[in-house]
Amino acid sequence: MKRPYLPSSPIPITATLSSSSPPPPRTPVSFSFPALTDDAVPPHTLILGTHPSQISLARTRYYANPSNAFWWLVGDALGFRYDAGLKPRSDGKARKKGGGAGEREEPAGRVDYFAALRYSSPLLPYDAAAARLAAAGFALWDVVGACEREGSLDADIAPQSVVANDVRALCDRFPSIRRVCFASGAQTAKLFLQQNEEWVRSGAFSLPHGEPIPPPFAARKWRDAFTIAEGTPPRIVLVVLPSVSPAAASISYLAKREAWERLCFKPGLRELDKWQGRRDTSDGRIDDCPARFSLETCEAPSNNKEPIG
Predict the structure, then answer these.
(1) Bridge partners of 140?
(2) Residues ≥6 apart with Cβ < 8 Å to 8
(3) For 124-151, what is each residue's pLDDT tens digit?
(4) What does the pLDDT average to over 46-56?
(5) What pLDDT is recorded for position 298?
(6) % the chain with pLDDT above 70
(7) What is the CB neighbour count within 10 angstroms for residue 51?
(8) Which end of the chain has fewer CB atoms within 10 angstroms, the N or the C?
(9) Up-side HSE of residue 296: CA atoms within 13 Å toward CB?
(10) What is the reported pTM?
(11) pLDDT digits over 153-180, tens only?
């Protein structure tokens, strides 16, 4: 991935500093990852985050924080349980007296997620989970390609430092993309609108039929951009989803899953069926879909609902 150009000149020293004083420290610039796609499967859905968190940047993985709901939602939709690795047991004790180091660990993630997950197997680590997602026609990327930010919150991004990813070029490269889903809620959608105003006003997009118009699309400024005239060619649907971020803890996992499956995964899987020429899935049943996405490196999908956690 070619990184966007950023000026490297230091922050000017103000007159109040002596000539021997160093310039004020500057927040390091971070860069997003390359878009995740499968060369063999044209993507139908592009899932956009804002910018990788500090944990994701350190691990070079999309949504690497085990408390982030994203990969757990993907597993529930595509027939696997995400394996986020291990963490020290919350009680600090071994599972049994004299237990080894491994027995002092437990699966990373949130207990409320574990209680709601559909599948106990197969367990897929990050690389296999990402491969299965892309093989199902879901692409991943971020709205912000580079920025200065203290911490991981979207609100902490320095606005003047933002360099946008060229989402339009990606959609031009993959004209199969029919849906763009914002994984971090309205804030990500707002940044997308700010960075792509000309494109949005060109008539390239629509909003989900029959759904309430979410912010920021409901603002008067954007109302005409989504007015669909009779005979208009198919547009890319923009979907604002409940944020997968751990900061959005007020929204339950089950509520997030319902919205993500209804507005992202089920429509996407129907598009994949059309492309594959497979059986009609107009009823939108996700439980029947995982077998189609088995990879050679994965076990057969299982609906076995064993205790999880």
Answers:
(1) 36, 47
(2) none
(3) 999 999 999 999 999 999 999 888 877 6
(4) 93
(5) 33
(6) 72
(7) 25
(8) N
(9) 0
(10) 0.78
(11) 766 677 788 899 999 999 999 999 999 9
Q: How far is CA 69 from the centre of its chain?
A: 9
Burial status of residue 307 (CB atoms within 10 A of its CB: 0-12, 13-18, 19 or more): exposed
3-state per-residue secondary structure call for the chain: CCCCCCCCCCCCCCCCCCCCCCCCCCCCEEECCCCECECCECCCEEEEECCCCHHHHHHCCCCCCCCCCHHHHHHHHHCCEECCCEEECCCCCCCCCCCCHHHHEEECCCHHHHHHCCCCCCEECHHHHHHHHHHCCEEEEECEEEEEECCCCHHHECHHHCEECCHHHHHHHCCCCCEEEECCCHHHHHHHHHHCHHHHHCCCEECCCCCCCCCCCCCHHHHHHHCCCCCCCCCEEEEECCCCCCCCCCCCHHHHHHHHHHHHHHHHHHHHHHHHCCCCCCCCCCCCCHHHHCCCCCCCCCCCCCCCC
Which tokens is 262 given?
Answer: 């209804």
Question: Which tokens sit at 170?
Answer: 């990606």
Cα torsion 38, 274, 48, 55 to 10°: value is -50
Higher pLDDT, 39 or 280: 39
Contact present, 86 and 105 (Cβ < 8 Å): yes
